[in-house]
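Record type: monomer structure entry
Structure origin: computed from sequence
Chain ID: A
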Amino acid sequence: VQLQASGGGLVQAGGSLRLSCATSGRRFSNNALGWFRQLPGKEREFVAGISWNGGRTNYADSMKGRFTISRDNNKNTMYLQMNSLRPEDTAVYYCAVARGAYAGVFYGEYDYWGQGTQVTVSS
């Protein structure tokens, strides 16, 4: 099982990035998916999650209205559209597969993780 996150980079404050997470090795169309992020020396924090069929999404408070999570089960890929980026959004972003069909906010609810992609927002 592999999760490949991509799309990170350097962007100015107010800019946008779109992250992708491609899964391979098995299908996860019955599992929720999620994005987390981590700053050096800090715990991994929940960013956004999406249910197995895309019908339900949830976001951390600071991401609401700026980030949009989506998935394409036919392509085994999940996305995170990030708009109005802020310097405090700078982190390594990880994609993950949840154990259940609905996305929780806790790290321990996710079984598979990608390698992370760096997002840097300059002021």
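Annotation 1: The radius of gyration is 13 Å.
Annotation 2: The chain has a mean pLDDT of 96.
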